[in-house]
């Protein structure tokens, strides 16, 4: 069931979304070679709890950390660890959420670690822009398939793979709500988009194939071909006009 948010609920959601936006912005200056993925996690957890909020992901379905920190070929759900050290030339995807008075934010970015290759920077840039291509259709009068189709058309025009096994989703009092939002699809298909929906739209794009597998920890999703992937996500509010990105500073 798709939940249309009230004005009060939207105002409550703005609080964790604002903290998430600021945190993702600041991570760009924080991330550097030599940090562990657990260092990144701890930076995030300290900031979220410092605002009197709860890290949404910690304990969610048994996930052991405050953030998903996924390196290179890891698409999503990377588990932070003290021994996983970020190296010059890596790219790292960080997915976070904060919970405030029962309402959630959900957003992700992919960051360069030091100096990266032109190909990897292109991957990050295309993934980000595919999000902005998609949200052109996060408006009343369109359907969920219009968003996915726009993401797919843009990313595939650069020869990149659009991950199919994992999708965006609604978000609110639950981290994952209806509707689910694939990053591919046919225009004019899927649920109608209505005012005051709150959607977590999240392209996951790979340099190679879209085929994935899950590691033995039952969480971390990687590309089958071992090529790098990127992730870009925001919590988006559908309005009576242009969509509002709640997790972008």
Task: Please outline the helices and strands.
Blueprint: H1 7-30, H2 37-50, E1 54-55, E2 67-71, E3 74-76, E4 91-96, E5 98-100, E6 103-104, E7 107-112, H3 118-134, H4 144-156, E8 161-162, E9 168-170, E10 177-181, E11 198-201, E12 204-206, E13 212-214, E14 221-223, E15 229-231, E16 234-237, E17 244-245
Antiparallel strand pairs: 1-5, 2-4, 3-14, 4-7, 5-6, 8-12, 9-10, 9-11, 11-16, 12-15, 13-14, 16-17
Helix pairs in contact: 1-2, 3-4
Q: Count all strands and give the number.
A: 17
Percent of residues in beta strands: 15-25%
Helix fraction? 25-40%
Helix and strand pattern: HHEEEEEEEHHEEEEEEEEEE
The top level CATH class name: Alpha Beta
- The CATH architecture term is Alpha-Beta Complex
Distance between the termini: 30 Å
What value does the average pLDDT take? 98
Structural class by secondary-structure content = alpha+beta
Number of self-contained structural domains: 1
Shape: globular
* CATH topology name: Creatine Amidinohydrolase
Number of helices: 4
Question: Order of strands across the biggest sheet?
Answer: 10-9-11-16-17
Low-confidence spans: none
- Major pleated sheet: 5 strands, antiparallel
Supply the CATH superfamily name: Creatinase/methionine aminopeptidase superfamily
Provide the gyration radius in Å: 17 Å
């Amino acid at each position: 069931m798709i939940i249309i948010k009230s004005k009060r609920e939207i105002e409550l959601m703005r609080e964790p979304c604002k903290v998430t936006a600021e945190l993702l912005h600041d991570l760009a200056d924080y991330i550097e070679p030599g940090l562990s993925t657990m260092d990144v996690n701890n930076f995030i957890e300290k900031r979220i709890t410092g605002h009197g909020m709860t890290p949404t992901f910690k304990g969610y379905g048994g996930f052991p950390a405050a953030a998903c920190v996924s390196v290179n070929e890891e698409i999503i759900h990377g588990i932070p660890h003290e021994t996983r050290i970020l190296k010059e030339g890596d790219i790292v995807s960080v997915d976070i959420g904060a919970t405030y008075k029962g309402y959630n934010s959900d957003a992700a970015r992919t960051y360069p670690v030091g100096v990266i290759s032109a190909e990897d920077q292109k991957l990050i840039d295309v993934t980000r822009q595919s999000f902005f291509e998609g949200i052109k259709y996060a408006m009343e009068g369109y359907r969920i398939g219009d968003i996915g189709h726009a993401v797919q058309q843009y990313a595939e025009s650069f020869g990149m793979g659009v991950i199919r096994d994992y999708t965006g989703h609604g978000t609110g009092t639950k981290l994952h709500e209806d509707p689910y939002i694939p990053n591919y699809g046919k225009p004019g298909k899927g649920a109608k988009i209505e005012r005051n929906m709150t959607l977590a739209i999240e392209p996951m794009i790979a340099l190679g194939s879209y085929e994935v597998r899950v590691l033995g920890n039952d969480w971390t999703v990687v590309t089958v071909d071992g090529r790098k992937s990127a992730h870009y996500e925001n919590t988006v509010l559908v309005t009576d006009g242009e969509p509002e990105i709640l997790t972008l500073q």
